[in-house]
Amino acid sequence: MNWDDTTDTGADAERLVGAVADREDQAVEAALRPKDLGEFIGQEKVREQLDLVLRAARARGATADHVLLSGAPGLGKTTLSMIIAAEMGAPIRITSGPAIQHAGDLAAILSSLQEGEVLFLDEIHRMSRPAEEMLYMAMEDFRVDVIVGKGPGATAIPLELPPFTLVGATTRAGLLPPPLRDRFGFTAHMEFYEPRELERVVHRSANLLDVEIDPAGAAEIAGRSRGTPRIANRLLRRVRDYAQVKADGQITREIAHAALAVYEVDERGLDRLDRAVLEALLKLFGGGPVGLSTLAVAVGEERETVEEVAEPFLVREGLLARTPRGRVATPAAWSHLGLTPPRGTGPGQQDLFGA
Ligand SMILES: Nc1ncnc2c1ncn2[C@@H]1O[C@H](COP(=O)(O)OP(=O)(O)OP(=O)(O)O)[C@@H](O)[C@H]1O
Ligand SMILES: [Mg+2]
Questions:
Q1: What beta strand segments (E) does 131-231 contain?
Q2: Which of 89, 96, 108, 198 is the most exposed place for a label (fewest CB within 10 A)?
Q3: Are residues 137 and 179 in contact, defined by beta-carbon separation less than 8 angstroms?
């Protein structure tokens, strides 16, 4: 799971191609969210499986099993949680791991749930330990022990809960303690989207935003969206701005191309920082291997920025490899930047060049 090393704070949120939601995303996302499974694009396997889980529960007149959604930012976890509630005809309560500091916070939420309600717990990997332990019991037995009083006089009062569906979301399934993971009846791993699926996302959003776009324009945006619907929607809004100001508002391939050149997002979805890292690696260090710190100095960025913000996508795209001797460019990196690799490839590159 190569998104485990992406950062979920800071610099990434400020980039046009960052997957983390910024303010503007938060403001428009509610309007762009698919409302039911039929509207949800891509993720075929997850959709098929979830559809079965929910249908079966409905047929039994039962509350659906707990669901864990894991995947990189912007792939549709929050959206799916709302769809689960909608499909079950159930209300949804939304909270997040960091918002639950004490077990008591969780007890208050759990004890106020209605029967069949969906509790969406975002960033479930960031919950406190005591809350987590309370959650184990709540998920399994629909019961919590509420501690009353302090010290030796403290007593645990058992409290029955109505059956509910916990939907947990995490960008880092690997960080969840196994006892918590095991208590979910169904786990959905969300994958990055194919360009064809993102084209459909772009068309759908354009429609909702009342923007005219042709298939080639949608393909142009989809191809630069890093497999992520949130980024596709964001690029669409920027291209719309350009189309409005510089043309008649319609998005064609030419308009999308010109707009994204202005925003410095290239054909593969790399932005200026990504390209600066690659260029330094290729032009200054012959494709590597070169140490992370040296590379960071060469592009004038912090080590962490290069490692956490730029590299994960470059690695995912097969443009850069992290080796024990340092960072190495792949043959695809040379061709992406239109450069020819030096003839005698360095020792660290032999494997990559199949030498
Ligand atoms: N399958 C999809 N079809 C159409 N639009 C989608 C799909 N998945 C996500 N989107 C859109 O992408 C945006 C981001 O989705 P969402 O907020 O659900 O992501 P997330 O996985 O919860 O991200 P985070 O990890 O940052 O919380 C939403 O505006 C939503 O409309
Ligand atoms: Mg979310």
A1: 143-148, 155-160, 165-170, 186-189
A2: 89
A3: no
From 46, 75, 96, give the residue whose CB has the most ligand 1 atoms within 8 Å, as the site to mutate: 75
Instruction: Out of 63, 78, 305, 345, pick the active-site residue.
Output: 78
In the predicted model, residues of the chain with pLDDT beneath 50 are 1-9, 354-355
Contact (Cβ atoms closer than 8 angstroms) between residue 305 and residue 299: no
What backbone phi and psi angles, to 5 degrees, belong to 102?
-120, 155
ipTM of the complex in this document: 0.99
Is 76:40 a contact under the CB 8 Å cutoff? yes
Q: Dump pLDDT digits (tens) for 259-293.
A: 999 999 999 999 999 999 999 999 999 998 999 99
**Residue 187 CB partners (closer than 8 Å, separation 6+):** 67, 68, 69, 70, 173, 181
Q: What is the pLDDT of residues 30-86, one digit of tens each?
A: 899 999 999 999 999 999 999 999 999 999 999 999 999 999 999 999 999 999 999
Residue ranges lining ligand 1, Cβ < 6 Å: 20-21, 29, 32-34, 40-43, 73-79, 171, 201, 229-230, 233
| Integer Cα distance of 109 and 100 in angstroms | 10
Which residue has the least CA distance to atom 25 on ligand 1?
73
